[in-house]
Specification:
Its main location: membrane. The chain is of the alpha+beta class and 394 residues long. The protein is built from 14 helices and 13 strands. Helix content is 50%, strand content 18%. The strands form three sheets. It has a six-stranded mixed β-barrel. A four-stranded antiparallel β-sheet has the order 2-12-1-13.
Length: 394
């Protein structure tokens, strides 16, 4: 960049610095989207896939859909016979409520291998026992911290509408902000969860498992390389099966939008910078025809004038990209807390930083696009006869 570029960029309000606000906004949007998507992906990789999700397949049951195989006891046994499958755990849902003190009403689920709870107190055993339960640290106004390690009476409802009591030991508490199955969930062993669901439906446990089945199930595969084959075999057998790694990487809602926006944003930023460069450069050169004509008469050639305009473009695009990266990174870091609540996983500041490639794209594309657009937009103006132009602008 020449001294003249810096001089005209600073002093002439008709210079290409007018393109900076628009490019800075585009770079900010790209960087923010990259940070949001990176934060969600980082949290998923660390808290879900890192805890065994790479070797898991999820089975779903859709009520009323005859094309999808129900997750009955016999169906889950068939799933367990697929080569490469090590274990199948069905998820059964019911409700536990306060029997002695408190006013809580907790949804209960099976603690499956895909549930990587952020334990805040106590410890979850390798396999939860039939008389054990894991609760949120607090829920619905009740603090369970004082009950950790104690056996507590929980109420549950039977099909007749009457109530009964089950004694469960609270072995661990987890951070209640983790809400993969919703707020205030009690996690039980598969047998206990199935028992409560069966009692609520008025059936014996085995009859319930065979007739109603689980609402979902997690299949644990022996090795990551077998997941694709196991998933295909389960799908061929009528199950709605999907690899957990595929499901969590296809980020839902806002995170899916951010991932799409990040990819589209590169094209929009590049195209926007190119178009803006062409339009702004043409306008800027036409607005300064007299000034450029005088420079040519004094001995400056078209290449030198073009270098002045390119210097303005690089300076404007570079500063716009830098401002966008700084603003977008700050915004994505500020959103880490709220987005952690939305995803149900902890997004750290390091997670929320956009990847180097995306940050570089946001930093460089405005300058590159604006420079390319400047070459296109200034060609026609710089071809004009400088003497006729100077005389016209007298």
């Amino acid at each position: 960049m020449s001294h003249w570029s810096l001089l005209t960029w600073k002093r002439d309000r008709r210079s290409l610095r007018r393109a900076m606000p628009t490019l800075a906004v585009l770079a900010t949007l790209l960087t923010t989207s990259a940070g949001v998507a990176a934060g969600a992906a980082g949290a998923v990789e660390r808290d879900v896939l890192g805890s065994g999700g790479l070797t898991q397949v999820e089975l779903s049951s859709f009520e009323g859909d005859a094309s999808v195989r129900s997750l009955t006891a016999s169906a889950l046994r068939d799933a367990g016979k697929v080569p490469g499958v090590r274990r199948v755990v069905g998820d059964y849902s019911s409700v536990l409520y306060a029997e002695e003190s408190g006013t809580y009403d907790l949804t209960s689920h099976t603690l499956t291998p895909s549930d990587d709870l952020p334990v805040s107190a106590g410890a979850i055993p390798a396999e939860l026992g039939p008389k054990e339960v894991v609760l949120p640290a607090h829920a619905q106004g009740t603090d369970f911290s004082s009950l950790l390690g104690r056996t507590v009476a929980f109420g549950y409802t039977q099909a007749s509408g009457t109530t009964d009591v089950v004694q469960l030991k609270i072995v661990a508490l987890y951070d209640p902000s983790w809400q993969a199955d919703g707020p205030g969930v009690a996690y039980l062993s598969e047998d206990t969860a199935a028992f409560l669901a069966a009692v609520r439906a008025g059936l014996e446990t085995e009859a319930f498992r065979e007739k109603e089945g689980a609402q979902s199930a997690v299949v644990v595969v022996e090795h990551q390389r077998q997941v694709a084959a196991v998933t295909r075999a389960l799908q061929d057998d009528g199950f709605s099966a999907s690899a957990v790694s595929d499901r969590v990487r296809n980020l839902p809602g806002l995170f899916g939008v951010a991932d799409l926006a990040m990819r589209v944003g590169v094209l929009v930023l590049a195209g926007g910078a190119l178009m803006l460069g062409a339009v702004r450069a043409g306008d800027s050169a036409r607005a300064r025809l007299g000034q450029l004509a005088v420079l040519r008469i004094l001995g400056s050639g078209r290449p030198e004038l073009r270098r002045i305009l390119l210097g303005e473009a690089v300076l404007s695009g570079g500063l716009a990209g830098l401002a966008g990266v700084v603003a977008g990174t700050g915004l994505s870091v500020a959103l880490a807390g709220p987005l952690s609540d939305a995803l149900g996983l902890r997004i750290t500041v390091a997670d929320a930083l956009p990847g180097p490639a995306w940050a570089a794209a946001a930093l460089l594309l405005p300058a590159v696009g604006l420079a390319a657009g400047t070459l296109l937009g200034s060609r026609e103006v710089l071809r004009r006869d400088p003497y006729l132009t100077a005389r016209a602008h007298g």
